[in-house]
Design goal:
Helix content is about 55%, strand content about 10%. The protein is mainly alpha-helical. Bound molecules: tryptophan (TRP). Tryptophan binds near residues 54 and 160.
Length: about 325
């Protein structure tokens, strides 16, 4: 069987992706990227980097929470069904060759090139702080993650696309400068639902904006969040006609409710008037309970020690790959 993503058949490739351990992963991560990883792990070699160095590049004050969050993110991965027999998980800060490669690659990048990158611009607004050297270099470090492991396919959320374009420019520049074709172009894999909105209906789901439902939230908390979800502010009485566009509850039902034709009928009824938000929200509560219960159960069975062991094993494997690959890269630079 082959994996078909973005219309491409993906089979036998190297997949590299990762997340920053800044907290528990949420439903936006799930629909934007994690879901694709579950498919890809079946027929491809998958590497997942826990990007702890990148957290520090983004915001040094977050350093104190990185260890705890690394455990949480590993639990998220394993509880949704990423299989450690199929996926190699590794810790970014442990792979010294990544720092080495980042240094070499950063000589091929200009400051204006980084400053005009849309991901960098958007993230700098979120973190709203002075631009450190570490922050500006993080796209280079992310390119190094991919290049060092020879990643061909990179599943990410849509907001990360400019970083991947940047990585491809960097690959081209490296090949040209050192007269090689060692580095292959990378192909982003974007999910159909890569921009899941948060509870507020205004912004993309994001933990830092406080509009997220985490994979590890308990049922009560999820239900409270669903009650807060943005619907149609003009839909006041049940008999009022309601709008589907921008209505977060429908957006979620489209993704999580199994019976699509039932949702189509409910949408018609909602637009005509006569269908209340509470009815829809209760339906969504049930859908998210069905989706999250098995994940919570899996998570409860995982100990810190177990997940750290998995991470360590993967990191050891990557260390040996990294060393060999770095030797090749250096032989191209220092001829
Ligand atoms: N920047 C990515 C994120 O915020 C995490 C990441 C680090 C990554 N290295 C990567 C993603 C390499 C893809 C490939 O989610």
């Amino acid at each position: 069987m082959s994996d078909i993503i973005n219309g491409d058949i993906i089979n036998g490739g190297i997949v590299l992706t990762g997340d920053r351990p800044t907290g528990c992963l949420h439903l936006g991560h799930y629909v934007g990227s994690l879901k694709n990883r579950l498919i890809l792990q079946e027929n491809n070699e998958v590497f997942i980097v826990v990007a702890d160095t990148q957290v520090i590049n983004n915001d040094i004050t977050k350093a104190k929470d990185v260890k705890k969050n690394t455990i949480e993110v590993m639990k998220d991965y394993l509880s949704i069904g990423l299989n450690p027999n199929k996926v190699t998980f590794f810790l970014q800060s442990e792979i010294l060759e990544l720092f080495e490669l980042t240094n070499y690659l950063s000589n091929l990048v200009t400051l204006p090139q980084v400053m005009r990158n849309p991901t960098i611009k958007a993230e700098n607004e979120i973190y709203n702080k002075s631009l450190t050297m570490g922050f500006l270099n993080y796209p280079v470090s992310q390119a190094a993650d991919i290049i060092l492991l020879n990643g061909e396919y990179v599943p990410v959320g849509e907001d990360q696309l400019p970083i991947l374009e940047f990585s491809n420019d960097l690959i081209e520049k490296f090949n040209y400068t050192f007269e090689t074709d060692l580095f292959k172009k990378i192909k982003p894999i974007i999910s159909d639902n890569s921009r899941l909105l948060g509870l507020d209906g205004k912004n993309k789901m994001s933990k830092s904006l406080g509009n997220a439902i985490s994979l590890s939230d308990n049922e009560k908390l999820v239900n409270e969040k669903i009650y807060q979800m943005f619907t149609d502010p003009d839909h006041i009485k049940i008999s009022d006609p309601g709008k589907i566009e921008g209505n977060v509850v429908f957006m979620f039902l489209d993704i999580f409710h199994k019976d699509k034709s039932e949702i189509d009928l409910l949408k018609l009824k909602y637009q005509e008037g006569g269908l209340g938000d509470v009815f829809l929200k209760k339906m969504l509560m049930k859908d998210l309970k069905d989706f999250l219960d098995p994940i919570r159960e899996q998570r409860n069975a995982l100990t810190d020690e177990y997940v750290l062991n998995i991470l360590q094993e993967g990191t050891m494997k990557v260390k040996s790959i990294a060393k060999k690959r770095m030797d090749v890269i250096k032989s191209l630079i220092f001829k």
